[in-house]
Amino acid sequence: TFYQFTINTNSLVAGTNVIAVEIHQVTPSSSDISFNLELMANIYPPVINWVTPTNGSVYVAGTNLTLTAQAADDVGIRKVVFYRDGIRVGETTNGVGGNYSVVWSNTVAGFHQMTARAIDVAGLSTTSTQSVNLMFRSQALLVANSTALTPAETAISNRLGTLGYVVNVKAGGSATNTDAIGKTVVIISSTVNSSQVSTNFRDTDTPVVTWTDSLYDDMSMTKTNSGTDYGTTSGQTQILMTGSSHPLAAGLTGTITIYSNANTLCWGKPGTNAIKIATLTTDTNTVVISGFEK
Fold this sequence. Notes:
The chain is mainly beta. Helices cover 5% and strands 38% of the residues. It has 2 helices and 20 strands. The chain is elongated and about 105 Å long.
């Protein structure tokens, strides 16, 4: 019977090294003991090639995805590690027919470069060199009065699509906070009745965008008195930018014309913890664009 043992080369020194081996018999009086020693240097690193997914594939962010690479080595593979943009995704020691796979759970939105690294039993390693870039599209939840969108809601959905989002439409009457799981943003349309949505998305970790003034109190953005703490003002064509340094202002400053014809604007009077971006031009206490950090 031959026994194999791997010596870490970090334990060796330059020059002459002495390697000692002990044999322990089960029976001390046995006379048939024999000994042979072979020392083999592992100078060849493993070979690894990326298998799937293929370069240029597009997926929805937040889903689970199986990653596979093929690896081989003359002395044996210890493990294969998978990375996205240099960040470890997972590793496996189990290969089937030379293929090693892991499941990347809750994939991250954006473009990602994928690699895999094979490590053999002696510690030598090789990283895959194939160009594998994957795109994961963010998901947006659009809550409307009905899944049959209005022209304005269709324009919003189309705009999100051009930005790379996968838009999931939900009717306000059936939308719940669990619908926000895995989404990058929740958008609540003004066609939604506040009694349908109420506080459903108030405590979600997903950012929420809404222009429905009757939801401001449900979302704890303002106090509860309609017409005093939140409401609408008709006959408006302009807004006044008051928080131009914030990204929500999109670099706009001063008085901005947003309608060619007079229209109605929703407003609220949020607390001091709000980030106030724009107000009515006639009353700087009535905020039309604001945000809250969570």
